[in-house]
Design goal:
Structural class: alpha/beta
Number of domains: 1
Helix content: 40-55%
Shape: elongated
Largest sheet: 3 strands, parallel
Radius of gyration: 15 Å
Number of strands: 5
Length: about 80
């Protein structure tokens, strides 16, 4: 499990906290395999995180930013969180 976070903005603490929560959730999912009929199934995920830095930022802008970060996480490998 790896994560990439930004630096330099006032939202870093918030992004770090959310990233930590996502990492804990991912760790729990990966540690505890589910059973599908008779086969164990493990789950992993990557996440793209966007925090609103300006009240003028709308949903579409935030969604595009989070989506771009999700694809950056997927490009970097499995089980990643990218917040900047």
């Amino acid at each position: 499990m790896e994560r990439a976070t930004g630096s330099g903005s006032g939202n870093d603490a918030g992004a770090g906290r959310v990233t930590d929560l996502l990492d804990g959730f991912r760790r729990d999912l990966q540690t505890n395999a589910f059973t599908r009929i008779t086969d164990p199934v493990t789950i992993s995920f990557s996440a793209g995180l966007a925090l609103r830095t300006d009240a003028a930022q709308g949903f579409d802008e935030m969604f595009k930013l989070a989506d771009a970060r999700l694809y950056a996480a997927k490009t970097a490998g499995r089980a990643r969180t990218v917040s900047a």
